[in-house]
Each structure stands twice: as C-alpha cells, then as structure tokens.
Amino acid sequence: MNLSSKSRKEIGDLGEKVAAEYLKRHGFSILDRNVLRKTGELDIVAEKENTICFVEVKTMLVDEFPAEKSVDDDYDPSQNLHEMKIRKVARTGEWYALEKEWEGEWQVDGCLVWLRRKDGMAKVRYLPQIV
Question: Each residue of 51-81: pLDDT tens digit?
C-alpha cells in the first residue's frame, strides 16, 4: 500500500496502530488509546508487569528506513519528543492514574515509528522511561 496520498493525521493514526500492535507482540496489554484530557492526550495506555505505560508515539513517513546508527536527523522522529511534550504526557498520565485509582507504578515511554512511503512497511523503536 503506497502511503504517498495519506494525510498527516492518517499517517499519525497508522503509526499509533503499528505501535499498539508492536506493544501487544512484546507482552503489553493495551488499556486505552487516544485519551484526551484538559492537560493533553495519551496516544497509548499500556500495561506490562503491573506498570502502566503512557506511550507517546511519533511517526515519520520515509522513502527508506534509516540505518541503525544513522546520524541523519531527517530520519529522527524522536526530535518531536521534546521536554515540554513529555511533561504534558506525564501530567495527563497522572490524571489518568488518579481517575482509574491506579496504585501501582507508572511511566512515560516513547515509541518511534517509521513508515515506508512506497509499501507501508514499518520500523519501530520503543523507548522505555523517557522521563
């Protein structure tokens, strides 16, 4: 599936779907998606080993996947995981934990998704505890 004609929102939604599938395959349970509160949005709320993970997903459409040790910033969606965004996710996560009366551990994680334009293939990199 060629992704060239997809909107930015459609690419972001697809990246979140890919990230959720990746997390499931790695032993996480998906509790919630796209939780919106006054303080911000939680892309994915997942649980693993009695810890809730508030996962911020950043997706980038690319012609080719970056090399593992690439220093080419054109391929780095983690640049969008800046301190202010992470703080917003943490604050929203706190509200979520309070609302659900969660008494266990919680953390803010990142998930970087590269989607290849020509065929829709994905590459995922999970970043635990980015706070």
Answer: 999 999 999 999 988 776 554 545 566 667 7
- Of 21, 28, 20, 31, which Cα lies nearest the Cα of 56? 20
Q: What is the DSSP letter of 77?
A: G
Count Cβ atoms below 10 Å from residue 68 Cβ, excluding itself: 7
Q: Among 24, 28, 18, 43, which Cα is nearest to 110's?
A: 43
- Residue range 26-55, pLDDT digits in tens: 999 999 999 999 999 999 999 999 999 999
Domain parsing of the chain, residue ranges: 8-126
The rounded distance, in Å, linking the Cα atoms of 61 and 25 is 23
**pTM of the entire structure?**
0.89
Pairing relationship of beta strands 51-62 and 105-116 according to DSSP bridges: parallel
Residue spans of alpha helices (H) in the chain: 8-25, 83-99
In the sheet that holds 105-116, the strands lie side by side as 29-37, 40-48, 51-62, 105-116, 122-127
Q: State the fold for domain 8-126.
A: Trna Endonuclease; Chain: A, domain 1 (3.40.1350)
